[in-house]
Amino acid sequence: MARTHGRGGAQGRKSNKKGMTKGTGGQRRRGLAGKGPTPKAEDRVYHAKHKAKLQRERRNSGRHQKETAEMVVGRNPVVECMHAKVPATSLYIVQGTRHDARLSEAVTMANTRNLPILEVPRHEMDQMTGNGMHQGIGLQIPPYKYAEVQDLIARAKESGEPGMFAILDNITDPRNLGAVIRSVAAFGGHGVIIPERRSASVTAVAWRTSAGTAARLPVARATNLTRTVQEFQKNGYQVVGLDAGGEHTLDTYDGGKDPVVIVIGSEGKGISRLVRENCDVIMSIPMAGQVESLNASVAAGAVLSEFARQRRVANSQES
Question: Region (Disordered) spans which residues (predicted)?
Answer without folding.
Answer: 1-67
